[in-house]
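Lab notes, practical 5.
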Amino acid sequence: MVASLQNSVNTNVGALSALRALRASTNDLNVAQKQLQTGYRVADAFDDASTFSVAQGLRGELQAYSAVQGSLANGVGLASVTQGALTAISDAVGNLEAKLTQLADGSITAGQRAIYTVDYNALTSQISNFISQANYNGTNLLSAASSSKTFLASVDATTLSLSSQSSVQAAFTTFTASSVATASEATLAITSLVTFETAVSTSLAQNASESRSLSLQSNFTNTITDAITTGIGALVDADIGKAAAAVQALQVRQQLGIQSLAIANQQPSRLLGLFPSIN
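Output from the prediction step:
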């Protein structure tokens, strides 16, 4: 059987085929170039509507967790400053107790008492500074006027709290009202110091416990946000190396497609060779 070959000036089948291949190459090239330009495999809903929708939902969750992170970071900062102040006060109380013991000794001279009193006053002044300077973001939990502070712990609006440690300043105020001018007064001041020391120890333990809870929750929230960020990346991020290689290959295919289309468009003009009179 002899195959027939049909030539037409109305329908150039070869050109249509070359054009389809060129369009496909151009579309693929546009996709690869978009990935290089944006860094995303799915930059918008036109790339992949369902994947983009899922990614947007995760981005919304990430923003909510970012708010939680900010609140917890504020709590951790306040707890850290408070803990530092309480630790410094606790260290100073030991020195203060030693100094009061010296002042309670009735055998010391007036000159010695004056020297010890200067040291005593310096220590109480330093403790006062620790209390007044325990500020973080405008909050001082050691202040007599302070109240407990709550911080977001999750996107469900659960909270963690830092308790007021106002008992520290109250006990300190009572203690500093004691006189140490004589041995007997210094002895009485030791009893008041024990009350202050107990308040400091209690506050130190409570703040440490609450601080640990905030730190653990902050670390856990950071882990969640890292996981969400990684998940979003897996969904929408482009493989830049792969996209770059694809662009180069597709550019070659596009050039070949243009040449193929040009060759195919020359086919109808060859029919003119069948009509010498026209030439």
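Observations recorded by the TA: The beta strands are 149-152, 159-162. The chain has a mean pLDDT of 87.
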